[in-house]
Amino acid sequence: MTNSLSGAAAQQIPGRFGLIGGVGPDASSDLYLRVVAAYQSRLRGAYPDVVMHSVPLPARLEEAFVRGHFDTAEESEVDRLLTQSLDVLEASGATCVGMACNTLHTYLRPLVRERDIALLDMVEAALGRLRDAGHRRVLLLATAATVRSGLYSDCAADFGVEIVAPDEAGQKVVQAAIMDLLRFVDPAEPAAAMREFAATLPSDIDAVLYGCTDLTVLRNHDIFSVPVVDSLSCLTDACVDFLSRDGVTAAS
């Protein structure tokens, strides 16, 4: 898998991983539990060095980025909240940070570049996974904000991948599914709606990317006829690779 570590501290020896949590809570806790389980498996029972700060994200901001309509004041508030979280994690001794939210990477990336800390970039991790699996034309399912930002499409060519967005009707289905999952609706309901949408996909799509971590809970539902790549799983692998480098060396 591609090394998605970026930032000023990219060459530092792995140490403490700082998790920016709360965006959203389910994805953050899922990421933490997955990292612990994978790390234990790789290092024969050891626990990783992880510290998490849960961002106090107001519901109105969460709904705004799902809809894709941040105004200037909301963008400033997001910057402030992420800066606060980075301050906490950097003070804790974290040498690397990650976040279980695709959309807010637009705001996180420039903030990390100003610090002596590295970023495990979920977008780069997912694109690397798509490339390594041989997927070339991929449908991105994500918030409107992620789709419009070009987070995936702007750098996909560097990985030999073409990112395709849903049409307007399809994006509405995706938006509704994300909002339902944020409200803890039974996943079977959005899964059923997504299954109807899946029947309309072009035949030249060879994979689907869950570019929103709230969609992760649908990974065990039989929805698409093509492979599904889950961005949260890609970030999990990147985290474990970062955290286990010292441990693997010490155990060998």
The coarse silhouette is globular
Task: Give the helix tally.
Answer: 10
Q: Tell me the domain tally.
A: 2
Tell me the strand percentage band: 15-25%
CATH class category name of the largest domain? Alpha Beta
Largest sheet: spatial strand order: 1-5-4-2-3
What integer is the average pLDDT? Answer: 88
Q: What is Rg?
A: 18 Å
Task: List the defining traits of the structure above.
single chain, Rossmann fold, 9 strands
Can you describe this structure?
The chain has two domains: 5-121 and 233-251, Rossmann fold (3-Layer(aba) Sandwich); 124-231, Rossmann fold (3-Layer(aba) Sandwich), CATH 3.40.50. It has ten helices and nine strands. The chain has helices at residues 25-42, 59-67, 72-91, 105-113, 122-132, 144-149, 153-156, 168-182, 188-198, 231-251, and strands spanning 5-7, 16-21, 50-54, 94-99, 118-120, 137-141, 162-164, 207-210, 228-230. A five-stranded mixed beta sheet has the order 1-5-4-2-3, with helices on both faces. Strands 7-6-8-9 form a four-stranded parallel beta sheet. The chain is globular, with a radius of gyration of 18 Å. Mean pLDDT is 88; it is low at 6-13 and 247-252.
